[in-house]
Structures are given as structure tokens and as C-alpha cells.
């Protein structure tokens, strides 16, 4: 079970959260002008890296707020936790975690 | 210590050759789908100068981690067609491959616990019948006749209100299936190259001309990807994206028991599926872990949840023990249907997105992928499953529609 730290409530078990997939996928600014290919990209295509991944979580049974996490998809180690509107933090190799 | 000599190793089922510099076709990934693709390239198309490149050992991925359920009772016409084709092949394969991989058509029950489940089940039975797939609707007392250990009491949180039943469904021993295909393909001339990871693609303009591997460059103008959970990683190296997400999917077995469970039981609503292997273990699986993961392991609360569901359905299992749990990496597509066809790179084909339910499709997956690689055109069975459907919107939405997708 993952131990995730809600920015507002602190460390809680994974079972208190729900997963929201890739972070930083913005709703298209000009939806009426998108081609079918661009709609497909927005609706169905997400990054799926093996390694660090910026993803969304919501603290469903706590404060019910969304936040972002950078997590390694191989080790499942949480590398960073940050607010839903913050940019993805730069993680230098060997950063203290 | 006694220095007794070990007995001779029995005959190998396939050679273990070094890679040749060039092949007529290369298949990346030595799971069930990759092995079957190579077999059908040789058997159906006479293309025998073929290599299967596997980063680990043959069938060490999902092929030897699944819960081995085989069925074809999917809702939509496109799915019924390809899964039923696979089931018909399963019925022929033990003789064709001359290998008894314990294919056992013991039937599958998909339980209904809510009014919505009942309606969905009846609809699916009718759709199946129209597509020539054997299917029946069973009332709770008929469920108990097929599987006496299922708790059909009304006095539980999610009572059994009925079930769909596909008598021709069943299970098979997954690693033996892989070995049966591999032996047959090897005899037809296919090279299975293990410990050979594809790390990049060799291209000439928009065309693929080979692969870079941990065992050197290997050339071919026809390359097929059958890398399951790692499909996105390979696609990224070839310069395109796939609409799949990789998730852990876990399963478990109990210790060995007397035969008590005569069929396969799946429940979408309480979310568990259970069969009993020939040896006697109870084999159970559930849903994917929610997060993306390449770790071949998942979270324990998922196992706890599936055990709770199993106990609700089968009170008789209360004293059984979990012996072993494990995980595989499954590539889940947005409509819970596979992607088989061309890619933006000429000569490079992809077969992925089988997610939690591709074992049952192994023969059809290999058959249609081989056809696509050999002719450059999809087989009628995989034409609807092309990447383009995410642009055209012609999705084949089996989420929920096909009961649990395993
Ligand atoms: C726990 C679990 C239960 C399941 N239960 C069922 C079930 O009951 N019924 C059902 O129908 N399906 C089930 N499935 C799904 C089924 O196992 C998969 O859909 C199917 O096995 C995928 O095809 P495959 O056998 O080719 O995959 P795999 O066996 O995973 O083959 C892919 C291979 O590609 C190799 N590879 C990856 N990257 C590279 C690279 N760069 N170079 C070389 N090789 C590479 C991997 O090492 C791997 O061996 C289950 C899966 C899991 C994990
Ligand atoms: Zn919180």
C-alpha cells in the first residue's frame, strides 16, 4: 500500500485517496477548433512512462482536495508532492527525497 | 556431501540460438501473443525466417501470471468475433500442437448481484446467441446446480440474482500453452532469442529497418510489437504514442485442496474471479491497482478486497490460506479492447491494449497479427481494432459490457 502525503492533511494510506492519472493535462483552450486527431490526443492519449511520472490524486475520504505527485512508476517511490496549480518541480538526480 | 551426478537434462522444447543479422520478420516480446504470432507467421504464411526477441525468458511476463480464464461471451460484435475465433482455435490446438496443455471447458458463470447486472447479463446472453456464442441465463437455483459451493442465500450484502453461463468457456495451463506454441514454431524454423532486450529502432526515413538490442543490431523490414505492459515504452522509442496505461494487476493462489470448485465464477459487482487449478489451488484475481505501475507488484489492500469478495461468494473458503500473490503489468486501453494493426512507422506493427484479458485471445491475437505483418493489411477480425478508432470514435467499449474483463 502506498503512503501518500496530502499537502493539507499529512501522510495517509493509499485507501483514503483516488487516482486521477496524468497531471498537467489542460482542457483545450479552443475546443471548437480542434481536429479529430487533436481531440483524440486530448481524450485518449496520456503519457505512460517507466520512471518518474507527474500524476493527480484526490484525498477522497479526507479533505477531498486534489494535488499532484511525482512518483516513480517502477519503484513506486514518491519523489515530490505539490499543489494542483503548481508547475512540476525539477528533480535533479540524487535529490534528497 | 555425495557427489552424485545430476541426470541428463531432458530434451529442450526449443533451440536457444544466437541472433542472425537479418530476418524476414521480427516479433518483439516473447509472451503468449509474440510466440503465437511467430507460429502463425510460419504456419499460415510460410514466413519461417522469423525471430522472437524476449528481454527475459519466454513467457515470463503476463503469460505466466494470468488466471487463465478463457471465454468468448463479450457484448459487441467485433469482440465476439475475435474472442469466439480464439475459442474455436483453443478447441483445435491441443491436437494441432500435439501438446496437452490441460484445456478444460468447465464453463464460466458471470454472476449478477443487482437489477442492472441482471439486465446487462440478459442483454449479453441475447447478443452472444446472435453471434453464435454459447450463452444461457441461469436463475440462482440453476447457478447452484452448476456450482454448488456458491452462496445463493438472499441473506447477504450482494445476493446472487442470477448469472450468465458459457459452457464452452474454461481454463488452460498458461505456461504449457506458451511452450506448446514455442515448440511448434521452433520446429518450423522460428528463432526464439531470450535475454535480448530491444532498446531502440533502426529506421530509414519513415520505415523501420531493424532493431537495436542488448545483443546487437538485428535487421528486418517487418517488426511487430507484442510487449504487453511495455508497449508504450517501445512506442516512445519509435516516436509515437499509444492510448494505453500500464497498471499492476494482481492474482493469488491458495494451498492445494480437494476438487470443490467445478467451474469458473466471475463477479463484476463484488469484483473477484475464482477457479480451481487442476493441481488443486484456488486461483483468484480481481481488478487492477488504480495507479500506473511497471513494478510487477501492487498494493495489499487490493488483495484484501478480493479475499473479502471471495468469502462472500464462497463461505467454504473461510479456512483456506493465501499461499502466494503476484502481479503483472497490464496495458489498459480506453475502451478495454485491444489495438492490433499498423503504426505511424511503416513496417512496424503493434499488438497491445489487451489489458486484463488477453490470455483467452492468444490464438486469435497471434493469427491476426501474423496476417497483418505478412500482408501489410489487417485481417477482417482485427480491422475494427486499429489505432484509428480513437480518432474516428468507433470505440469497442467493453468496459462493463463484457462482465469483468479478464
Ligand atoms: C494477474 C493477471 C491475471 C490475468 N488473468 C487473465 C485471465 O484470466 N484471462 C485472460 O484472458 N487474460 C488474463 N490476463 C491478461 C493476459 O495475461 C495478458 O493480456 C496477455 O498475457 C498479454 O499478452 P502476452 O502473453 O504476450 O504478454 P507478456 O507475457 O507480458 O509478454 C510481453 C513480453 O514482452 C517482453 N518485453 C517487454 N519489453 C521488451 C523489450 N524492450 N524487448 C524485448 N522484450 C520485451 C516482456 O518481457 C514479456 O515477456 C491476466 C493478467 C494478469 C497480470
Ligand atoms: Zn487531505
Descriptive report:
The complex is a heterodimer of chains A (97) and B (406). With 97 residues, chain A is mainly β. Chain A has a single domain (3-27, 40-82), classed as Folate-binding superfamily (Folate-binding fold, 2-Layer Sandwich). Helix content of chain A is 9%, strand content 33%. Chain A contains one helix and six strands, in the order βββαβββ. In chain A, the strands form two sheets. Chain A has a four-stranded antiparallel sheet with strand order 3-4-5-6, with no helix packed on it. Chain B has 406 residues and is an alpha/beta fold. Chain B is 27% helix and 24% strand. Chain B contains nine helices and 19 strands. Chain B has helices at residues 32-45, 77-96, 115-130, 140-146, 174-187, 231-238, 300-313, 362-375, 389-392; strands spanning 25-28, 50-53, 69-70, 108-112, 136-138, 162-166, 170-171, 191-193, 198-204, 207-213, 216-219, 223-225, 245-256, 264-267, 272-276, 281-288, 322-332, 339-342, 348-352. In chain B, the strands form four sheets. In chain B, strands 5-6-4-14-15-16-13-17 form an eight-stranded mixed sheet. Chain B has a six-stranded mixed sheet with strand order 8-2-1-12-19-18. The model of chain B has no long low-confidence stretch (mean pLDDT 96). At the A-B interface, β3 and α1 of A face α6 and α9 of B. The site of zinc ion (ZN) has 7 residues of chain A, from loops.
Amino acid at each position: 500500500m502506498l503512503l501518500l502525503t496530502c499537502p493539507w492533511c499529512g501522510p495517509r494510506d493509499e485507501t483514503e485517496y483516488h487516482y486521477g492519472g496524468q497531471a498537467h493535462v489542460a482542457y483545450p483552450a479552443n475546443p471548437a477548433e480542434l481536429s479529430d486527431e487533436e481531440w483524440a490526443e486530448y481524450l485518449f492519449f496520456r503519457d505512460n512512462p517507466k520512471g518518474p511520472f507527474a500524476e493527480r490524486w484526490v484525498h477522497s475520504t479526507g479533505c477531498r482536495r486534489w494535488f499532484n505527485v511525482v512518483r516513480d512508476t517502477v519503484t513506486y517511490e514518491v519523489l515530490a508532492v505539490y499543489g494542483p496549480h503548481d508547475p512540476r518541480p525539477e528533480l535533479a538526480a540524487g535529490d534528497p527525497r | 556431501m555425495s557427489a552424485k551426478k545430476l541426470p541428463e537434462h531432458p530434451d529442450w522444447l526449443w533451440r536457444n540460438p544466437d541472433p542472425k543479422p537479418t530476418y524476414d520478420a521480427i516479433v518483439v516480446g516473447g509472451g503468449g501473443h509474440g510466440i503465437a504470432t511467430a507460429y502463425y507467421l510460419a504456419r499460415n504464411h510460410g514466413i519461417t525466417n522469423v525471430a522472437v526477441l524476449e528481454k527475459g525468458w519466454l513467457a515470463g511476463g503476463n503469460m505466466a501470471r494470468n488466471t487463465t480464464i478463457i471465454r468468448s461471451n463479450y457484448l459487441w460484435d467485433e469482440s465476439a468475433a475475435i474472442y469466439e475465433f480464439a475459442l474455436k482455435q483453443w478447441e483445435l490446438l491441443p491436437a494441432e500442437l500435439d501438446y496437452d496443455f490441460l484445456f478444460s471447458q468447465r464453463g464460466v458463470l458471470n454472476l449478477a448481484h443487482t437489477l442492472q447486472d441482471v439486465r446487462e447479463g440478459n442483454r449479453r446472453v441475447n447478443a452472444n446467441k446472435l453471434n453464435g456464442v454459447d450463452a444461457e441465463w441461469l436463475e440462482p437455483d440453476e447457478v447452484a446446480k452448476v456450482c454448488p459451493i456458491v452462496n445463493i442465500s438472499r441473506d447477504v450484502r450482494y445476493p446472487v440474482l442470477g448469472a450468465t453461463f458459457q459452457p464452452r468457456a474454461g481454463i488452460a495451463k498458461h505456461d504449457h500453452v506458451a511452450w506448446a506454441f514455442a515448440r511448434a514454431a521452433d520446429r518450423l524454423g522460428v528463432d526464439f532469442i531470450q535475454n535480448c532486450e530491444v532498446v531502440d529502432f533502426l529506421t530509414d526515413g519513415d520505415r523501420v529497418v531493424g532493431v537495436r538490442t542488448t545483443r546487437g543490431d538485428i535487421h528486418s523490414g517487418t517488426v511487430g510489437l507484442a510487449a504487453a505492459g511495455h508497449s508504450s515504452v517501445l512506442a516512445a522509442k519509435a516516436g509515437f504514442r499509444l492510448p494505453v496505461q500500464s497498471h499492476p494487476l494482481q492474482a493469488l493462489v491458495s494451498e492445494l485442496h480437494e476438487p470443490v470448485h467445478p467451474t469458473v465464477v466471475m463477479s463484476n459487482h463484488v469484483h473477484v474471479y475464482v477457479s480451481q487449478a487442476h493441481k488443486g489451488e484456488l486461483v483468484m484475481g480481481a481488478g487492477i491497482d488504480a495507479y500506473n505501475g511497471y513494478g510487477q507488484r501492487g498494493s495489499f489492500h487490493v488483495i484484501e478486497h478480493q479475499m473479502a469478495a471471495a468469502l462472500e461468494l464462497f463461505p467454504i473458503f473461510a479456512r483456506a490460506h493465501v499461499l502466494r500473490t503476484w502481479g503483472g503489468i497490464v496495458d489498459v486501453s480506453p475502451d478495454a479492447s485491444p489495438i492490433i494493426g499498423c503504426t505511424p512507422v511503416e513496417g512496424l506493427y503493434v499488438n497491445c491494449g489487451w489489458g486484463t484479458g488477453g490470455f483467452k485471445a492468444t490464438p486469435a491475437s497471434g493469427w491476426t497479427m501474423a496476417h497483418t505483418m505478412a500482408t501489410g493489411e489487417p485481417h477482417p477480425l482485427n480491422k475494427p481494432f486499429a489505432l484509428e478508432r480513437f480518432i474516428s470514435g468507433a470505440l469497442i467499449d467493453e468496459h462493463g459490457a463484457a462482465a469483468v474483463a479478464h
